[in-house]
Design a protein that fits this description.
- Pfam families: FAA_hydrolase.
- One of its GO terms (biological process) is carboxylic acid metabolic process.
- Keywords: Hydrolase, Metal-binding.
- The protein is of the alpha+beta class.
- The chain has two domains: 59 residues, no CATH class; 215 residues, Alpha-Beta Complex (Fumarylacetoacetate hydrolase, domain 2).
- The chain contains six helices and 18 strands.
- Strands 1, 2, 3, 4, 5, 6, 7, 10, 11, 13 and 16 form an eleven-stranded mixed β-sheet that branches. Strands 8-18-17-14-15 form a five-stranded mixed β-sheet, with no helix packed on it.
Amino acid sequence: MRLANLGGRAVLLVDGGAVDVERLTDGVFGPGARSVLDNWAAFSAAVAEADVEGAERIAYEPADLGTPVPEPRQIFAVGLNYADHAAESNVPAPDHPLIFTKFQSSLAGPAATVTLPTENVDFEAELVAVIGKEAYQVAEADGWSYVAGLTVGQDLSEREVQMRGMPVPQFSLGKSYPGFSPVGPAVVTLDEIENPDDLAIRGWVGDEVLQESRTKQLIFSVPSIVAYLSGVCTLHPGDLIFTGTPAGVGNGRTPKRFLRPGETLLTEVEGLGRLENPLVQGYESTASA
């Protein structure tokens, strides 16, 4: 199943178009994503019994899709969760997940145009896990059973704002400008993924590959992150977890390589789909004429 957001309505992406969830389930679920995710087990069972193949198809373009989980209660993110990214950041690999948050207002769709507020905006390709049922003090061995599905995300970061307050910076504001959390194109259920612990992940601009790795390189796996977070917080259906980014970020390069207006940032995770986010200028350039 691939759950997406088309014009504010929950849909399933299938061959030939999209299927409206509310119509498919005779009004039991939908029209938005919240009723679907809040009742994930019942919804999954209803879809399994529904005539998806015979349902009406709605034509759409990728640009028509919004973020598939538009109203998560919580958005968590994990820092330095690939050893090579920790190394390029000149810090040791962490002993425990390093957690920060992103704000809901930063969410954007898979083809949303992102306005760059400064010249210091960096890219971070990420696998994103979507929680499917309430979780508190979950064992790592049971972690996957609390995940509704996976999707693609970008943790865009304004590095100067992010690092304010050194040596104890607070990351959330620098990672929460409007559009700084594009997610999508759909929440893909685990039954459609051959090995959710090992997926290719890639970010690029034009012909320039910026990041390329596999999620098996995560220091802390999705189940271990679910266990760690739920040991402190109650996780709710629809919560998003950005699981971390591999090496190659602009801030770790010499010279630094930040995003530029006019570029289109592409992000892909194997089997989950692709983000294509055009970038436009929202600042007065400091470059000399």
